[in-house]
Amino acid sequence: xxxxxxxxxxxxxxxxxxxxxxxxxxxxxxxxxxxxxxxxxxxxxxxxxxxxxxxxxxxxxxxxxxxxxxxxxxxxxxxxxxxxxxxxxxxxxxxxxxxxxxxxxxxxxxxxxxxxxxxxxxxxxxxxxxxxxxxxxxxxxxxxxxxxxx
Length: 150
Fold this sequence. Notes:
Protein name: Guanine nucleotide-binding protein subunit beta-like protein
Radius of gyration: 15 Å
Pfam family, one: WD40
Distance between the termini: 33 Å
Strand order of the largest sheet: 4-5-6-7
Low-confidence stretches: none
Organism: Chrysotila carterae (Marine alga)
WD repeats: 32-66
Number of strands: 13
InterPro entries: WD40/YVTN_repeat-like_dom_sf (IPR015943), WD40_repeat_dom_sf (IPR036322), WD40_rpt (IPR001680)
CATH superfamily: YVTN repeat-like/Quinoprotein amine dehydrogenase
CATH topology: Methylamine Dehydrogenase, Chain H
């Protein structure tokens, strides 16, 4: 199993949870505000000051960007929504995740992680920054912003 920590210098450190020794370093290239890892440990996402969400495949260290349309504002927080689901007619279980990102311009944007397609971008806190996100047990999403609203 792997754990991850992030720093404002853009580095993300991966740690083996059996020995708690550092196993790898990922570099976002910009300040990282928040990270999240998929429950299967295969993907890591980072909220960055560049207005992007960086996505890494942990095994291959391949990375990609999810862009927040029309914004260069910082992404303040990121969470992964979803779980591992059975494929119809098969015994194989396949991860199905969405990425939700909180933005400094008051929006929360959601992507399908597998396709990298944006599913929606919602202005939920007016012009106030969104600072936190919480995945709810029922599949919903709660957000907190600079407007002091949840």
